[in-house]
Amino acid sequence: MTTTGALAAAAAPSHLLSPTVGAAAAAAAASGAAPPLAVEAMTVRYGRTTAVDRVSLALAEGGVYALLGRNGAGKSSLVRCLLGQQRATAGFARIFGRDVWRHRAALMAEVGVVPEQPDAPPGASARRLARLCRRLYRGWDDDGFEQRLRRFAVPPELPFGRLSKGQQRHVTLALALAGGPRLLILDDPTLGLDAVARRAFFEEIVGELADRGISIFLTSHELPAVERIAERVGILDGGRLLVDEDLERLKHRLRRIRLPRAAAAGSATGEAADAALEALAPLRRETRDWGVEVVVGAYDDRRFERLRAAVAGGAATVSSLTLEEIFTALVGHDPAAAAPADAPAAAPAGRATGGSPWQV
Predict the structure, then answer these.
(1) Domains of the chain with bracketed CATH
(2) Angle, helix 271-279 to helix 301-310, in steps of 10 degrees
(3) Selected residue with higher pLDDT from 274 and 33
(4) Are the CB atoms for 207 and 201 separated by under 8 Å?
(5) Residue 222 confidence (pLDDT) above 80
(6) Closest listed residue to residue 331, CA positions, set 11, 28, 43
(7) How many CB atoms lie within 10 A of CB 302?
(8) Residue 87 above 90 pLDDT?
């Protein structure tokens, strides 16, 4: 296959899928252990629109799982099913091994939730909200709640509706943590916050991980923050789970390869170079003034050395990608791009679609 053919084939979903999609769920089932959270072959449809398409994933005990996707990818539908607020069309959501739809009331006593949009009564103060929530949790921590209000500089008696967005999020987090949850579900918790408030929020999460080791499932567009705390990452696109993989492994296999113009031009007819690049599973390419840049999905040191040996002058170079760059390479969109929640996703753009990477 020529490099043109390899790039065209890379546009097919099978070239984007992690070889371990659903692997954590399968491993948990095989061991007989019930993970804190598991999704099994979940499908959610709205009429003829499929928002979530046969998704399976699992969160390890004490782990942090980040579910990523552009707006409209299906994250909100999946989270609503995780919380028992919506019934999946097919498949299951389980928390601590129990079906969420059937046992929501009992399970939520062990789950802390920070929703995408805080929904507390606007006239209730933080302390009044705490008094209401205290009745629902046996292990309610008043001291911890008050300490967080002080740390976040939240006026405890000011009505919730008069607090800033950052203060409202911090109150919601303080309420979620005061119940002593075994599992914390965060649905885009820093949406609309400024940089200082976002940093304070995630620092509190990191502190909780260190102190208590609770299990965390989150969705977020704050990919630099996610990269610092997540152990496993799922990426949704058009309702399908493209990736379900340990973050470090994902960062190892997706890399950026650069070929200067002279090297690319000198290899235009090289079958060995074509084959070497194909073995690295090219996903996306961009032509630059200086040459060509290719993101590959199956990086391996030996495969890369074969590519380097095949191009003119051995001028190929490789570098790592951030999580944000990986996200963009796989779904082809800015992760902060706006779209209606769970709207039908547009066809992914920006993937490799033919044309030899040696042509610049």
Answers:
(1) 13-249 (3.40.50.300), 255-320 (no CATH)
(2) 160
(3) 274
(4) no
(5) yes
(6) 11
(7) 7
(8) yes
